[in-house]
Amino acid sequence: xxKRLNILCVLVFVAIGVGFLPFxxxxxxxxxxxxxxxxxxxxxxxxDFSQIVNAPQMHLMAVDADSLDFATVRNAVSGSEVRLWxxxxxxxxxxxxxxxFSVTNTAVHLLSVVLLAVIVVLFLKLIVRVNxxxxxxxxxxxxxxxxxxxxxxxxxxxxxxxxxxASIVAGQFRISGFAPDYFSYISAxxxxxxxxxxxxxxxxxxGLKMKEEQDLTV
Length: 218
Prior knowledge:
Elements: H1 2-36, H2 44-54, E1 57-62, E2 71-74, E3 81-84, E4 88-90, H3 99-131, H4 138-170, E5 178-180, H5 188-217
Antiparallel strand pairs: 1-4, 1-5, 2-3
Helix pairs in contact: 3-4, 4-5
């Protein structure tokens, strides 16, 4: 049983690592582009790269079939021109974010890293206790409650900032026939993980309460 539990825990950390792969890949591309321009005195590539990195992203959905404004791109395989349906895209637009939002958004990104570290530590503590045979204890209930609460709170705060940021972009840039898809910013997976941890905590709490009542009646 413990071996199976440990295997599942390893898979959890593998899944977390896989989640970081896009960021690592993006960092690798940035380093590669920078290395290719070592010694280049021109600042054009720096401006282009900065625009790509800082370009605001938009999630869009079609709302008016009669006024859809499609972009046209070249198919590198066939060489033909094709229409592009913008579902999620980055736009080269200078968005005027409020100063408080820029500061808060940076703080939220840093807080997300801290919360991830807290979640990993809480998870490790829980697994270590279970491996030691300390399963049905109130401390485990508290660990699960903290784990679920941190995951849930972090997800809600991050999603709120993303949706608010998208609304600022939408107020300064629009594509004919499309509207912002705010629902796509909601991560059902992250919310579900937090709720499952809280449910597990309450199941443990009910079991411990029943055990204590039985001990008192003996």
